[in-house]
Amino acid sequence: MILSQKIKIALIQFKSSNPSKQLNLQNAQKFIEKAMKTQPDTKLIVLPECFNSPYSITKFKEYAEPIIATDLSQSPTCTFLSKLASRFQIILIGGSIPECDPTTSKIYNTSIIFNEQGHLIAKHRKIHLFDIDIPNGITFKESTTLSPGSQPTTFSTKYGQIGLGICYDLRFPELAMIAARKGAFAMVYPGAFNTVTGPMHWHLLARSRAIDNENYVVLCSPARNLESDYHAYGHSLVVDPRGNIIAEAGEDEEIVFAELDPSVIEQFRKQVPITFQRRFDVYPDVSK
Ligand SMILES: NC(=O)CCC(=O)C(=O)O
């Protein structure tokens, strides 16, 4: 059993790109409180990519915080998320924030995950940096100021294993495949696609990762903010293991609720048993 029981989740799609970090945190809290009031049986909440800062290569350093598991007090955002997770006894996937590593001075785009007791249970540094150049579309180069992580992430909850990637990581099927083979029932991606690549690929990629692995896929975006330099696509969504979008936001601020159900995974994996039909004898170079 890879998902032990049904679990209600909420995605917080809010305008998170305010220049005031304090205001971004306050707004995140306001939406988490609203989600818990509206659907008190919610057990897991996801925030968007870079939810405490503008999404900008020139700003990452200014907003970056050290994330030290043994001393979370050095990170105001971790302290804030830890308190909220324990207050509501939820798993809180803290989107991502710019992280500075005090030993190397490198900056990462990092997701932090807290359990129901407010303990930091995982940290994922974005592995694939968003460096693209589409003439007359969008040019972005995260690697100008960010360093890439090098560790795929899965973490245990009382519901089962969950895999995690950040935004552009979604384009690389290997991470979702690795997590699924470790037994994850869902792949969660805080992300901030834009108005060029969002319409092209956001839904397709989410649905592809779901059907590749017959798993749930969860994408949580900031709401679109035309006052910021980067226009996030929005459309936070949840895809089921059959590839159906079961919940989706528009472009504005919104909370998306969905229920993940173990029987949907089990049934579909029996009906279309690709999970058990892989031919590693034919492609042994793909790691098991
Ligand atoms: N923040 C990101 O990684 C954006 C990724 C994106 O827009 C894409 O098309 O991929």
From TrEMBL:
UniProt key word Hydrolase: yes
Annotated Gene Ontology cellular component terms: mitochondrion
Keywords: Hydrolase
Domain CN hydrolase: 7-262
Pfam families: CN_hydrolase (PF00795)
Gene Ontology process terms (BP): amide catabolic process; asparagine metabolic process; glutamine metabolic process; oxaloacetate metabolic process
GO terms, molecular function: omega-amidase activity
UniProt cross-references to InterPro entries, sorted A to Z: C-N_Hydrolase (IPR003010), C-N_Hydrolase_sf (IPR036526), Nit1/2_C-N_Hydrolase (IPR045254), UPF0012_CS (IPR001110)
Superkingdom to which the source organism belongs: Eukaryota
PANTHER family linked to this entry: NITRILASE-RELATED (PTHR23088), OMEGA-AMIDASE NIT2 (PTHR23088:SF30)
Name of protein: CN hydrolase domain-containing protein
Organism of origin: Naumovozyma castellii (Yeast)
